[in-house]
Amino acid sequence: MDLGISGKQGIVCGASQGLGLACARALAGEGVSLTLIARNSEPLQAAVDNLSQLSSAEITSVVGDITTDAGRDAVLQACPKPDILINNAGGPPPGDFRDWRQKDWFDAVNSNMFSAIDMIRRTLDGMAERGFGRIVNITSTAVKSPMPGLGLSNGARAGLTGWVAGVAREKVRDNVTINNLLPGLFATDRGRGYLAYRAAQEGVSGEAYEQQFYATSPAGRLGDPEEFGATCAFLCSAMSGYMSGQNILLDGGVYSGTY
Ligand SMILES: NC(=O)c1ccc[n+]([C@@H]2O[C@H](COP(=O)([O-])OP(=O)(O)OC[C@H]3O[C@@H](n4cnc5c(N)ncnc54)[C@H](OP(=O)(O)O)[C@@H]3O)[C@@H](O)[C@H]2O)c1
Questions:
Q1: What average pLDDT does this structure show over 91-106?
Q2: Alpha-carbon distance 250 to 141, whole Å?
Q3: What is the CA radius of gyration of the chain?
Q4: Which of 51, 90, 207, 214 is the most buried (most CB within 10 A)?
Q5: pLDDT-derived band at 1, boundaries 50, 70, 90
Q6: Nearest residue CA, atom 39 of ligand 1?
């Protein structure tokens, strides 16, 4: 299927590995020119080199922290008129709410709520004026069903989800959509790190906890980041213009709610 986005310009945040990189790979495969951002230069350059081999589209990068004004300035200087924006940053650390103070909460809200809001603030109206925009926020299954130990993520991402529900309606008639992609557990550093944290909490080995997860998950496995990237590319496609404000869950069927 031709997604109709060849030649578009895109920004992918948190793109040197994991789900962000998978989204970048799928978009590059569709001929989208990309600007990637992450904090560590070596893996970021490796990602650029890898994507450049897969695609003739231009792939550039900015070393920076998307949770800072300076990082957001730099990525928008490199790509001032994005057609596609994938908002993503690292997830907050796990722990117990009794140990979290104001700074812990402010950091989580900054990373997993405000950074995406500020990128949308800076790009939405330009997309509307140009008549095309696709914004995808990588959030978490936590917004549908809280994840044990991840209270900072559960709270901050719920805030982003509530705000997006409103703004996602503003520019749909100008062909700008905003949707959230909710990962369940995926085979990335973050996904495996969470499994290791849960194993330690339960007092079992990582291997034993993973087997327990596989036994209870309907899919019986972790998600493949490429599956996530492909869904992201569809949400960025020319034919997804009638879909905005949705929370798309990819979790192998773990969440068992009807809606
Ligand atoms: N994987 C899962 O199972 C899962 C489940 C639910 C939710 N999530 C959420 O989905 C998001 C992506 O997860 P993932 O599994 O892809 O994580 P990951 O494998 O740890 O990759 C995170 C990527 O984001 C970059 N990054 C982190 N903080 C950044 C910052 N402040 N500025 C710019 N780049 C930053 C990292 O590079 P640098 O460190 O070099 O900056 C890396 O490229 C996270 O928010 C995570 O909490 C993941």
A1: 97
A2: 8
A3: 18
A4: 51
A5: confident
A6: 39
